[in-house]
Amino acid sequence: MTAVLHDSEISPLAQAMKLHAFLLGGGQLGPVGDLPGLALDPGEYTVGTLGAVLGYARLRSAVPQPARPGTTTVIAGDYAHVAGWAMGAALRGTLQVAADLRSRAPRWCPQPLVAAALTTRRLWTEVIEAGQPRRHWVNYEMVTGMRLAGDRLELHFVHATSMALTGPWAPWCAALVAHYRYGAWAAQAVPSLNSVLPYR
């Protein structure tokens, strides 16, 4: 049994919910056309392809800035003047440490997505890096966590940086990833797709 993946009569979210219910009910998706050049394993086939309808971002750590060398300062004056300067220096140092920590915090770095393909075993993405298209893939077994919030799907991996897919088709991707990663427990992975909403 296969499912119709894209029905222009209903919204992408409703299609994601319909697909999620279909897969939880034991439905199986049949193969659809592959992206050119995908190297698939025996028994693996593409169940969905999307063009540039998704946003794509990876969680990157900022490059730490080198520590600024300290300076030696001699302050002369009465007690109030020296104490005031010392308190001001301590405050400046605290503010600088806080600014350094903020600059080193990981942040989402968007990249242009050319295409995405979801197979029975992995998620393929083709993004533009340094002006050239480059393909990335992750096996569903590498997914350690996923979070679907509205039209944003965050995937966290073992030994790889986290990925975010955004846009109206992100819930549809979440339904497929949850099914192929968690199987019967997919309902717990994406609880927002379990609701019964009208399909239009």
Number of helices: 4
CATH topology (fold) name of one domain = PH-domain like
> Which structural class is indicated by helix and strand composition?
alpha+beta
CATH architectural designation of one domain: Roll
Mean pLDDT score: 80
The strands making up the biggest β-sheet line up spatially as 3-2-9-8-7
SSE series: HEEHEEEEEEEHH
What's the CATH H-level homologous superfamily of one domain?
Pleckstrin-homology domain (PH domain)/Phosphotyrosine-binding domain (PTB)
Describe the overall structure.
The chain is of the alpha+beta class and 200 residues long. It has a domain at 12-35 and 42-60 and 107-193: Pleckstrin-homology domain (PH domain)/Phosphotyrosine-binding domain (PTB) (PH-domain like). 28% of the residues lie in helices and 30% in strands. The strands form two sheets. The chain has a five-stranded antiparallel β-sheet, with helices on one face. A four-stranded antiparallel β-sheet has the order 1-4-5-6, covered by helices on one side. The longest helix has 26 residues, at 79-104.
